[in-house]
Amino acid sequence: MKDNPAWDQLKAVNVEEKNMVEKKNNLSYISWAMAWSTLCDIYPDATFEKHCNEQGFPYFKDEQGWCFTKVTVTVNGKSITEMLPVLNYANKAIQNPNSFEVNTSLQRCLAKAISLHGLGVHIYSGEDIKDIPNGDEDKGDGKEKGTEAKTIKPTEIKEKEPKKDEQVDKEEKKGTATLDLFLKIINESKNFKDMDNALGTSTNKPTLENLKLNDNDTWQKIMRATFEKKSNMLINTLNDKTKSWATISESMHTPKMIGFLDDLKQNANDLLEKVQQASETRANKENKNG
Fold it and tell me: Which of 90, 150, 208, 212 is deepest in the core (most CB within 10 A)?
């Protein structure tokens, strides 16, 4: 690939040293967010395209109903298109996938398409042929001595199993971009502070910002889940008879709470109405008990 220096430059990136490699069930992969971020650091003009079918949906279906996604990544003027079956959590191809499964497949396909430009390509080839020759070296007949070249298999790409932020931040020390991870963080949060701290770590904050720019659909789902969880926390507090109305009323007028209610007004008015209804119900009960 002498005509395209991107291959040599991206292949030279030590993805292990940069803590970009995730492992699950003895298989390795790179999250799409880490791959895209690293690629754009080197080639800011890189682009990708998620292909859609004739109906405008981002997946394709064969005659038996098996589905697959298709993504093209362009780096330094060279485009590479990758196709990947839509898989479930057991890493098995599925029929009639839901929107989340299609989105997961698209992100996996994006990561693999990026790797075909050189970034972490050995991860998807197996440890036995980790030292893939550069384009200016002898290509031979596609086989290593004593063994046939291994085909890159879609099943070698696996999504990161959901983990709480503390595990990701302290043990993995890697950014992840799976919807499951953030939903788990949100659902396990006990209060506003717990959630804000978990989502605002040096690992997760930039990942969310990256999602907002490059995968707004997933980012919107995370924001919606955040609004729903915090709204439910607030409603539960309003319904908690063990908490005095004076204490609740005071907390409702803090800058942080006012900011949250303003966010609901702009982004989730339906949830704001539920919070207001719970607040009015509690206020009316307090007035009656006066």
Answer: 208
